[in-house]
Amino acid sequence: MYDEQIIAEVIGTYFVIFAGCGSVAVNKIYGSVTFPGICVVWGFIVMVMVYSVGHISGAHFNPAVPLYIIAQVLASILASGTLCLLFDVTEDSYFGTLPVGSNLQALVFEIIISFLLMFVISGVATDNRAIGELAGIAVGMTILLNVFVAGPVTGASMNPARSIGPAIVMKTYDGLWIYVVGPIIGTILGGFAYNLIRFTEKPLREITRSSSFLRSMSRSVAR
Asked: Against a cut of 0.70, is the pTM above it?
């Protein structure tokens, strides 16, 4: 079973990097995607992969387990290599992450957006009181919003593998430590913060008397 989880994580991460970084490369080379388009691609591809392989591997896409770290970095390298084979990627069309301002500014941004992402993931994917069917949408929209806010400043990594793969393939290591340290600190703090508010006397599903938000909405419409 664990082998299937690792394979699912490799496939999921590969397509997240291929689509997300691919949109960056296409926009820089052809100028046809636009920045809002890049934000949408990142949000949608994460959402799609959460729904596709989340039930197999948990769709972490954010290294927390040693084998997942290896799987995700490998997938990121493979996806980055694929993009370099498909496009004439130069220094100007680099699809990795580089800090635009100071390293401190970039680090703080990465901590904050990684905090938010982990906080949302903890709420919608690890708490049995949450509406599980909406987890992919919530996570994808969080990615989209984070890229909108932090993308122009840091590239909005939120995941060391997202930055490590392109850096290795393109041999561009400027500020790479930011995209390793920032997401790790942010995800730890985000998970800890959610755990502080996780416990209540009654679960949401008991309060709403429904095990599924989507099913309850369907019944309401039917009436």
From this structure: yes
Q: How far apart are CA 77 and CA 142, in angstroms?
A: 24
Q: Which domain range does residue 88 map to? A: 1-222
Q: Six-digit token pair at 14? A: 């590969």
DSSP string, 80-94: HHHHHHHS---GGG-
Name the helix (H) or strand (E) containing 68: helix 66-86
Residue 156 sits in a domain whose CATH number is 1.20.1080.10
Report angle CA 204, 209, 214 to the nearest 5 degrees. 80
DSSP string of 14-48, one letter each residue: HHHHHHHHHHHHHHHHH--S-HHHHHHHHHHHHHH
Domain count, the chain: 1
**Burial class, 31, CB count within 10 angstroms (exposed 0-12 / middle 13-18 / buried 19+):** exposed
- At 161-190, the pLDDT tens digits run 999 999 999 999 999 999 999 999 999 999
Contacts of 196 (CB under 8 A, 6+ apart): none
- 69-118: per-residue pLDDT in tens? 889 999 999 999 999 999 999 999 999 999 999 999 999 999 999 999 99
